[in-house]
Design brief:
single chain, about 70 residues
């Protein structure tokens, strides 16, 4: 193999590696975007459940407080 052929082979290998890295970066970017969308969907799903839980906890805390006051009298 001549020096010129070796140079062309090296350049092609570097270009192939560059393209592989770009493709991998694009795939990672897409996966991150999709993961972000999944996280947003999960957050939106849990928010109403969390709000309902907090309301129920607050109501029970009020009931317990009222019961303790009644026992204290």
């Amino acid at each position: 193999m001549s020096a010129e052929e070796a140079d062309k082979t090296l350049k092609q290998d570097l270009e192939d590696t560059r393209n592989d890295l770009k493709r991998a970066a694009d795939e990672i970017k897409l996966k991150l975007h999709l993961a972000g969308m999944d996280a947003k969907d999960a957050w939106e799903e849990i928010q109403p459940r969390l709000a309902d839980f907090e309301r129920r906890v607050d109501a029970k805390a009020d009931e317990v407080g009222d019961e303790l006051k009644a026992l204290g009298h």
